[in-house]
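Note to self: keep these together.
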Amino acid sequence: MRRRGIGGVAAINKNKLAKAKFAEKGTEIAEGQISLMSQQLDEFRSKLSDFAAKHRNEIRKNPEFRNHFQQMCARIGVDPLASSKGFWAELLNVGDFYYELGVQIIEVCMATRPRNGGIIPLEELRVRLTKAHNKTREDVTVDDLSRAIKKLSTLGNGFKVIVVGSQRLVQSVPVELSMDNTAVLQSAMDTGYVSITTLWNEFQWSTDRARRSLEQLIKEGMIWIDSQNAEEDLYWFPGLFNSEK
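Structure:
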């Protein structure tokens, strides 16, 4: 019995030693793989840097080329917009491109807010920027605008792109839209307005629920009331009317 006990302890110790060696070898292999991956990533970043320097002007001027470059950067975790004074900004001036675009987005949104209540279709924003800055903004795409607006979101919740149905809108008022608010906005996408009746027909909302959501949007200046309609009040979203058409 004693000999079998000693043998059992020896087997256990041997098993533990084998496991420790396997673990050590696994760690060694993992560290080697990580080191190789890190080396490959550094090499790819270096090549990406050379590519960016070579095609600098095309990246800035060609929106399709710029979009492909952004996608390449995203795949390896490089953000050219991370800092307006970072390495990529110095290499491409791309940081300045988007930060300048962000300033112009703020200007357009502030200028049109009294008319549209802080909601403007992304495409209308692009058209307005193009017209306001002539040739300097003719190469701007809605993707560029989305990237610039994403950077503006660091200022707070005053600027962001919201998706309503199939359309992208820019919200420039510092209010968090509830699910009901968004539903009201989606209901108005085709006609530009809603009413208590349309909200009942579409969502089966009670009058109290519809009024609560509408009153919040009225308070934020995002909708206007038309009390001249014979049947009932209509609630209009001025931001859904593109005066640029």
